[in-house]
Write a structure and sequence with these properties.
The protein is mostly beta strands. The chain has a single domain (about 5-279), classed as Beta Barrel (Lipocalin), CATH 2.40.128. The chain is about 0% helix and about 60% strand. The protein has strands at about 5-10, 20-25, 30-40, 50-60, 65-80, 80-85, 85-90, 105-110, 115-125, 125-135, 140-150, 165-180, 180-190, 205-215, 220-225, 235-245, 250-260, 270-279. It has a 12-stranded antiparallel barrel with strand order 3-4-5-10-11-12-13-14-15-16-17-18. The protein is globular. This is Transporter.
Length: about 280
Amino acid sequence: MLKKPFWMMTASLLLGTTAVHAAGTADDQFSLAAGADFSSGKYGTDTTTDIWSVPVTATYNMDRWTFKLVVPYVHISGSDNVIPGVGRVNNGNPHGRGHGRGAGNTGTTTTTAAATNGSASGLGDIVASAGYEVFQSSDRTFGVDLTGKIKFGTADENKGLGTGQNDYGASLDTYKVYGNWTAFGGVGWMKYGSSPYIQLKNGFNANVGLGYKLSHDDDFGVYYNYRQKIATNGGPQSEVTAYWNHKLNQNLRVQAYVLGGFANGSPDYGVGASLKYLF
């Protein structure tokens, strides 16, 4: 069996998913991770929208395969035209967040000519993915992964926690190690589901980054992520994330990140951390 590189995901599985190359790990390994993520931005609206997410991630590595399941709990406060993981849309749902009629709407409701604001909490969209290591060099300094992903529409569309529709995607990611440095990047495509209330277009995404292994226990890096505009009145995603990974012991890992957005499809900023246990 080839030994697979270990890839950690940043918070925005919620926000779209970029893999970060970290350190080697053995085959046939199961891990569980729990995190907390916060982002804030106007997304081209007049209102600041804050999003909290607490994702639980299960990962299983088997030879060339990596299987992953992410189950998030989400809280959002702000414009009902902002959907977690999507950004600004034209939300025509009459029972949406802030209208006071959607099941589970909480918080203060404010109606203006521009938008309706409110807050809501609940299960987010569950994401399942399967990745296959298409190629890895004999010295493990270069590799290519192909990944398929399904985002199930489990988040309540009446709370504005999601679109209520499934999304399907595929991505091709690669990395190259140069001593303590690792260059990585990838391209992907997503088929976004539309509902009677929210219309989305399919779109491409891409990322590129650079990581540095500071020691046996620590590595850090930075990457840029882009996604095409997928909603008529929305915007593209354009954001930079800096991350740090630390190995507490043989089985326990911690990761932290900060994010800055540069387009209406992204939050203005975000922060997050996660703890992962390898069995």
